[in-house]
Specification:
By secondary structure, the protein is of the alpha+beta class. The protein is 47% helix and 14% strand. α1 packs across α2, α4 packs antiparallel against α8 and α5 runs antiparallel to α7. Bound molecules: iron/sulfur cluster and fe (iii) ion.
Length: 486
């Protein structure tokens, strides 16, 4: 098969029965609940856009395993062109959804695990890579949406996994059986967890020998016994269930990806779905390769969102009669400058990518981390400018229910109008979209998604060639040698 449509994906969600909780209630069908529908719509677009002639070239490719045409989100990159294609595809998807479409995390996990299983087998004579390739073929054939589950709750962050008072603060192996393993613990903030079909579990940090039980990487289907999902609240999420559409800002795709706490309460994993078990000395490689792939993304998807935000801000300035003021134009130009700078970063780290021993390509880790660190600043700055141009009404505007009220609706209509030829409704819709994209959860995603800023600083510290920089300076300053007199 190789490629499915968005509706096939929705049907596949209805066939599985994951244990999902939201607002204290067990959810019967994720695919049909208003809290999840925008996230499912965004993920479904990764399928449907792959069939659209104008996006096909960006969102499809050829499997290096079978030669079949597949969706980009199941592909393992085999060139710098592939890496650039991913960034362009993410920007295009971000432009269409204005939100997170969640499928990239599992995609990045596929790429990282593909390469690390190969390296482990080369060193230890294990057979993880063969199992993983079989699994990858299945994923490609079914065009399956999987999440990437890396971040553990971490408990007391001053202590490694094996010294935690509660051993479950990091996912670990509690039993080794002939035909598989049993794992316990939890993964936090997992994007797309409730609307994926399974999770690729990975370690979250570098590990030492004492932490060997925490060196576990495996695939777990969403409805595996013992697996529990607790969906996170988001800013203004009750608007999704209130019957209001305009007040949601982006009713079709939501304001942010849907994240969940995923609990592994003694989950059995068959041996063929285990891709690391005890190889603590490969945990860091896996973390770094996954993090590099995901940080590479952020100058793609977030720039697509920035295109939407800039467009909404410009359109609002027109409605409010400020679009031709020189300071507004300067600020709009600044938004574009910031967005395109992020895009440059993602394109650059992709072009500077290189082949790993398994043959697949990874973006340049230093530049990928710089990309994501810039996202933690520039997206906030763009949001600040958008809110500046929008004005205080962004925070004080009456509800669409008051606008529709027979008694007071006429006042809302009259006093929220800007230029004469545009109805108040247009202004209200733009303000709600900007509110959704610049307040609360949506912004925090740019800070902490793909790892917090300090995680990027640590990688930048490790990957910067400090000695070489020092030698360059010493050479020019003639330190350690007698100056030659001409
Ligand atoms: Fe993909 Fe992550 Fe961007 Fe969401 S935030 S669209 S998962 S790269
Ligand atoms: Fe993310």
């Amino acid at each position: 098969m190789g490629m499915i449509h968005g509706d096939d994906y929705r049907e596949s969600l209805r066939r599985v029965k994951p244990e999902v909780y939201y607002m204290g209630e067990k959810i019967d069908s994720v695919a049909d609940h208003p809290a999840f529908i925008p996230h499912i719509n965004a993920a479904a677009l990764t399928y449907d856009m792959a069939w659209a002639p104008e996006f096909e070239e960006l969102l499809t490719t050829e499997s290096h395993l079978t030669g079949e045409k597949i969706n980009l989100f199941t592909h393992v990159h085999h060139s710098t062109n592939d890496l650039v294609q991913k960034v362009k595809a993410l920007r295009a998807l971000g432009q269409q959804t204005g939100s997170c479409f969640a499928r990239c995390v599992g995609h990045d996990a596929l790429n990282a695990i593909y390469s690390v299983t190969y390296d482990m087998d080369q060193k230890n004579g294990t057979e993880y890579h063969k199992s993983f390739v079989n699994f990858l073929k299945e994923v490609q054939k079914e065009d399956r949406f999987i999440s990437g589950a890396m971040t553990d709750p971490k408990g007391d962050r001053s202590l490694p996994p094996s010294q935690q008072a509660d051993a479950d603060q990091y996912v670990h192996v509690v039993e080794r059986k002939k035909d598989g393993i049993v794992i316990r613990g939890a993964k936090a903030h997992i994007t797309g967890a409730v609307n994926a079909l399974g999770h690729l579990v990975m370690p979250t940090t570098s590990l030492k020998e004492a932490d060997a039980d925490y060196a576990v990487c495996c695939y777990v289907p969403v409805d595996a016994p013992g697996l529990v999902h607790i969906f996170g609240r988001q800013t203004n999420d009750d608007r999704k269930c209130s019957g209001c559409l305009m007040d949601q800002g982006n009713p079709e795709y939501g304001i942010v990806g849907g994240e969940a706490l995923v609990v592994f309460d003694d989950v059995f994993v068959p041996r063929e779905q285990v891709f690391m078990c005890g190889e603590y000395d490969f945990a860091f490689e896996l973390v770094e390769r996954f993090a590099t792939a995901h940080r590479q993304n952020y100058g793609g998807c977030k720039v697509g969102l920035a295109d939407v935000l800039t467009g909404a801000t410009y359109a609002l300035a027109e409605v409010q009669g400020t679009a031709t003021a020189s300071h507004i134009r300067d600020k709009l130009v600044e938004m574009v400058h910031l967005a395109e700078t992020l895009y440059c970063c993602s394109i650059a780290c992709s072009c500077q990518g290189y082949a790993l021993p398994a043959g697949n390509f990874m973006a340049d880790p230093l530049l990928a981390n710089v990309t994501k660190l810039n996202v933690t600043r520039y997206i906030y700055e763009m949001a600040r400018i958008a809110q500046d141009i929008a004005g205080g009404l962004l925070a004080t505007m009456p509800s669409e229910l008051d606008w529709g009220n027979t008694k007071v609706g006429k006042y809302v209509d009259k006093y929220l109008k800007g230029v004469t030829d545009v109805p108040a409704e247009t202004r209200m819709r733009l303000l709600r979209l900007i509110e959704g994209m610049t307040c609360g959860t949506a912004l925090a995603e740019s800070m902490h998604g793909a790892g917090s800023p300090q995680a990027q600083r640590i990688m930048i510290m490790r990957r910067s060639n400090w000695e070489r920089k020092k030698r360059l300076a010493q050479k020019l300053a003639k330190i350690g040698e007698q100056p030659k007199l001409v």
